[in-house]
Write a sequence for this structure.
């Protein structure tokens, strides 16, 4: 909650450290801390945490979220091919999850697959007709790292999503 909703990524790490010290096999803590690491621009650590979370809970009912976070970790580390791979896997598990669609768009645009990014953008808009880049930038964009935050917005704009 601290990192995603309040953009307090650094303070969120304190709580993840506590959770993982108390229960080092808690897949959810590994996965969510992966997201926070990505938001901070610590992509390599994010990928490691996501992979560990998946190993701990390979049959989780919400595995699409885990795959999506693994993709975000790869995006944060600049490995757009892997980001796209995991965003696709996540979207295949749950095609209605708009968060996955946003990061699928971002990964596609990062790789200059603009037409496909626009196609997924149309799917996103059909599912979330109120989506606007200005609102996403000010409220929902999870990246605390300013470079990644701007890259994410640039990639969403490249796909032609409405301001």
């Amino acid at each position: 909650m601290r990192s995603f909703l309040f953009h307090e990524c650094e303070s969120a790490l304190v709580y993840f450290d506590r959770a993982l010290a108390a229960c080092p096999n808690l897949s959810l803590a590994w996965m969510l801390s992966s997201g926070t690491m990505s938001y901070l621009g610590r992509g390599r650590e994010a990928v490691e945490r996501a992979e560990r979370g998946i190993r701990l809970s390979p049959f989780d009912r919400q595995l699409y979220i885990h795959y999506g976070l693994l993709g975000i970790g790869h995006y944060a580390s600049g490995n757009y091919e892997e980001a796209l791979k995991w965003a696709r896997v996540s979207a295949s598990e749950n095609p209605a999850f708009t968060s996955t669609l946003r990061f699928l768009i971002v990964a596609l645009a990062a790789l200059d697959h603009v037409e496909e990014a626009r196609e997924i953008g149309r799917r996103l808009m059909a599912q979330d007709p109120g989506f606007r880049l200005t609102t996403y930038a000010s409220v929902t964009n999870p990246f605390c790292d300013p470079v990644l935050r701007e890259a994410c917005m640039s990639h969403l704009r490249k796909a032609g999503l409405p301001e």
User: Anything to note?
Assistant: The mean pLDDT is 93. The radius of gyration is 15 Å.
